[in-house]
Each structure stands twice: as structure tokens, then as C-alpha cells.
Amino acid sequence: MPSSISTLPSVRDLLSHAVEAVGGAEREGQVRMAEAVAKAIRTGEHLAVQAGTGTGKSLAYLVPAIRYAVEHEATVVVSTATIALQRQLVDRDLPRLAKALKRPLGREPTFAILKGRRNYLCMHRVHTGAPEEPEDTGLFDAFAVSRIGREVKRLHEWSSDTETGDRDELVPGVSEQAWRQVSVTARECLGVARCPVGTDCFAERARGEAGRADVVVTNHALLAIDALQEYQVLPEHDLVVIDEAHELVDRVTSVATSELTTSLISAATRRCGRLIDADIADRLLEAGDGLALVLDDLPPGRMDTLPTPLGGALTVVRDAAHGCLTALGSERKEDIEEATARKLARSLLDEVHDTAVRLLDAFDEDQAHRQDVVWLSGDQYSASPRPPALHVAPLSVGGLLRERVFARSTTVLTSATLALGGAFDTLARQWGLPPSPKPTVKAEGTATDKPAPSDDDGPRWSGLDVGSPFDYRKHGILYVAKHLPPPGRDGLGERTLDEIAELIDAAGGRALGLFSSMRAAKQATEELRDRVKHPILCQGDDSTSLLVSKFADDPRTCLFGTLSLWQGVDVPGPSLQLVIVDRLPFPRPDDPVSSARQRAVEARGGNGFLTVAATHAALLLAQGTGRLHRSVTDKGVVAVLDSRLATARYGGFLRASLPPLWPTHDPKVARDALRRLDAAAPA
């Protein structure tokens, strides 16, 4: 990281100027975070920052990042996990900040948003049309064909008006089937030099703008693609800020996961069928048929060993795909139509071949040293049949992040939830960082209360918990229902349902129910709608965004759901004064990736449950608990109806991952507090 004597104002002065310009109030945690980010930029030492809701962390990292970009004429990458935060940064935070910093920096900072190529309209596809994909059963449905046709027509009309070609700017949106007709993946793209409309390419234009910008906002998926590919996707940068860093491992894992299905093999065969000898293409089609017969006889779930019939079928698929690739030959001078067909065929053949190779290689090592986990999904006998699919995912992405992210650029990782169990090392290990080389800096009143062990091996980094402006102990209660029996496998028990009903009655509605499964959420909704006088909405009744809006608009309403509600609800004020958690959110025992990761840790002599399952639960529980306080005036109760949080040995680790709410096991204390809040709330 370059350093020089700067003539620009200090980070502290720029932050004060920016906060005043946007009409905000400077916060101690925000100042500490901004100065820590500035130090990381100076020293090149990576930084993990836990910044609670209300800290103003976006400004805290954007101000020093922009200062660095302007001073050194460099590009800074900011990566997020969600579209919502991307839009907040690009549509609100960065425009206001750029105007505010124009005078002190001597020029207005620039910014751009960059997504994967598939998110942009491909004008070559628009002009030439997409290849037929008859394997998609929706295309045989007359209504579906009509709907897709209307959507594609609308996309063609939009292509003449849009300036960006960005799918997210098309309102209302279109189905994935329709978008496929006018977009390409990076593998399918002809490239600027060969494409007849390359000079008008929206994706290339976005990349060009990103290369000239001071700040490029992207997502964790594209960050992972940039790390995985041999070619560069993101512009040159030596500073990256990873916001919503608690989701980094899952997003990178998703990008690094491959899938093999018989329909993919069939599509690859059709794509290359007219370009190579029919006998060679037929071998691949026959290999796909053979794989289908084998998969039909295998039970869904994780595979610890490679069944002999499957190994034989995958070998035949691999060799047949390789034969097609060889027959297809290298790129040559040919007309654009021929070049496009060849590129599309090669894209699918590469995917089939490489995935088959990876599936076969996944079983080479002993369990302690394996790099991938394989599983079979699908249920062709259910009411909603899904054809079998083979999946292969990395057991760890730490090595990838360490070599392709941390080794290349100074990295700042931030989120409201990073210090699990009171320390950053839990997530740092998943990121591929060594235990922190010096004591983690502690903010007053936070859970981070002990230094991590020292280890000089690997990238240097430090952790900082800047706390939160919220007074959790005065404004929030953590009620753990210690008297309830541990949750069972047969759904919610009667005592748990009684507890939920009593809490909702005491709160006068105002409840967000976070359940460990959709089945539990629906059971609670069905059984309690007749028992409580307040309306209960359930995830799935309508779009999640509409349900959250209804919940926010009517304080007496309750909202029950799972997964996305644990992290996606931002409802400040009296509409949300009770968060109910039915059980600790451990991963499902049959989840192939988490169970394989747990077993791999145990094979190396570690504690797989604490390293994988408890970490997953701590992260999600902290995120769910965080739904209660979204502003400094919010008050309420988090009710955890799983007694294991109070009684199990791992309970202390989970509790240390949560905001420091005032704890109680007494249901009367929780209900009385809720009644007082209900009485004080606006009518």
C-alpha cells in the first residue's frame, strides 16, 4: 500500500465534514472505525470490524477509502452480500458523500456498480436470438410460452431505451426464462474483439466505468468469481472493503459449487450436435442416459464413498465430453453465427467435463484431507418431482480467500455480527486468516472480553469491536425459557405454543416470529390464529417484502417466518417489540455441506460441532436478535424458547455472540415488560 505525506484533510476532518453535510451526528464508534480503516490502509494490515446497527459504518469505511482512492488515483472495491445494501450505497450514501467531499478533496469522487455479466443485457443475443432450450418443460406449456414471449418482446423494447442494460433497473422484472434469452454468461460471451456489437456491450461498458471510478460497488459472488477465475473480472485494486462479511463464506461457497444433471448433458449434446460428427455427440447423449439410470437407483443425500456404478457412469460422461471438446476443436476464423454456436457448445461441454472430473476427484483423499463434498438431491416421486442432481461443493473456502483475496489486497471486513463467542477468530478461521496476532481491541460494553492467541504465521490482521450506540441492557431483555423442555423433532409442543400465545397477548401483537423451519412457522400460524386476537402473517402468504410492509404498517400484526426474516427485516419503532425464536438455529443434520465440514474437522482432531454447527447457530441467532433494535429508541424483548441456550455447555458461546441484553429466565418478567411497552406505545 503506497504511503506519502498527504496534503488532503485527515480522515477525522473529512468524516466530520461528511457527517455534517449529510445532516447526521458524529458517533464515537464511527470515528474509531474510520480511524482503524485509515490505519489498515496505511499499514496494509487486514482489519475485521464489528459495528453494531446505528454506528454508521458505511460512512466510516467510505470516507477513508475515498480519501485513499483520490490521493493515489486508485480504485477501491466495496463488496456487499445483498442487493438492498448495494442500492443503498449507490443510490444514497455515495452520491451524498461525493458531493459533500468535493470541496475538501479538490474534486468530486466517482463511483460505479459492477455485477456479473449475466446481469446485463447482451445486444448480440437481442439481435440474433437465443438458442432453443427445449429441455425446459415450461416451454411446452402454451401459457408459459405466451408469457415468456411477451416478456422477451418487452426486453427487446427496453433494449432501445436502457442506458445500462442492468437487469435490476427493469421494473417490473421478468422471469429467469425470459432473461436467459437476452443474456450470456462469461463462458458464452464471444468477447469484445469478435462480437459484432462489442463496442455497444453493456457489460463491457460497466467494466470500463468501474475501471475509471474511485469506488466500485460489487457483490460477494463477483468477488468470488474474480478469485476463482484465471482472468481478471474486477478492476485493478489494492483495497477491498467487504461489508456484510458474516455472509462471505456462504456466498463464496455457493459460487464454488458445481452441479451435474442429465438435462445439462442433453443440452450440451444438442449445442454441439450440428458442429461435430453425430456419432461423437451421440456418445455423450448415451453417457447421459447411463448416468440417469444410475442416479435413479441412488438415495438422495451426502456421499462419503463413490458407488462403483456412479464412478463408471461419471467416467463415461467425462470421456464423452472430452471427445466432443476435441472434435469441436480450437477457435478458428469463421462467421459470427458459427462462432456463437461453437462458443455456446464449448461453454456447456466444459461445464459437463469439468464437473465430472471434480466429482471423480472428490473421493481421492481420505476424509481428513478431502477438499470437496458430494451429494445427490432430487425427489422424482414427490408431488412436486425434482430430477436427480449431483452437487460438489468445497469443504473450505479459507485457502481460496487467503491466496486470492488477502494476499492480493488490504482487506477490511465489517458487519454487525463478527465477534462470535466474544472473539473474531471463529470467523477468521473460516476466512483463511490465522488466529489474531495481537489482542482484539475491545469497545466498552461489548461481548469481546478476551484476547485471542498469538500466531505469526500468515496474513496479519486485527479485530475491532466499536460497539453500538444502542443501550441494550436498558432497552432490551433476553428472555430464555429455561423451564420449557428441549425442542423435539415432531414440531412445536403444546407448552411452546402456549408460551408464544402468552407473549403475543402481553405485547399486544408487535411480534416477529423467527422459526427454524417453514414447517414450524406454518404450524405456529395455523394453531395460533384462533388463539390470539391479533393478526398473524406467515411467510409464503405473499411476497416477503409486502408482508414486511404490512407488518410495519400495523403495530398489532405479527409476522412469522424463517431464513430470510432472520436477516432481512428492518422495522424500527413500536411495530416490533417482541422477537420470538422457537429453537436454536443449528444447521439441519442432513445438510450435506455443514455435516461434511463438521466431520472433516473431527477427522483432524477438532471439535466439529463447535467449529461448524455452533458457529452457524451463533451467527444466525445474533442476526435474528438484531431485528429488535433498529434505532436508538427501540425497546423490547427477545424470547428464545429453546432451553438449551441456558442449560447446554455451548450456551455460553452462543450468549457471548449476542448483544448484551438484560437476561432473565422468568416468563412473568418478560410478559410484564411487554405489557408496559404496549401501554406506552402510541395508539
From TrEMBL:
Its cofactor is [4Fe-4S] cluster. Signal peptide: none annotated. It comes from the Bacteria. PROSITE patterns: HELICASE_ATP_BIND_2 (PS51193). Pfam families: DEAD (PF00270), Helicase_C_2 (PF13307). Its EC number is 5.6.2.3. Residues 431-463 are annotated as: Disordered. Keywords: ATP-binding, Helicase, Hydrolase, Nucleotide-binding. Residues 16-296 form the Helicase ATP-binding domain. SMART domains: DEXDc, HELICc2. The keyword Oxidoreductase does not apply. It catalyses: ATP + H2O = ADP + phosphate + H(+). InterPro entries: ATP-dep_Helicase_C (IPR006555), DEAD/DEAH_box_helicase_dom (IPR011545), DinG/Rad3-like (IPR045028), Helic_SF1/SF2_ATP-bd_DinG/Rad3 (IPR014013), Helicase_ATP-bd (IPR014001), P-loop_NTPase (IPR027417). GO terms for molecular function: helicase activity. Belongs to the helicase family. DinG subfamily. PANTHER family: DNA REPAIR DEAD HELICASE RAD3/XP-D SUBFAMILY MEMBER (PTHR11472), REGULATOR OF TELOMERE ELONGATION HELICASE 1 (PTHR11472:SF34). This is DNA 5'-3' helicase.
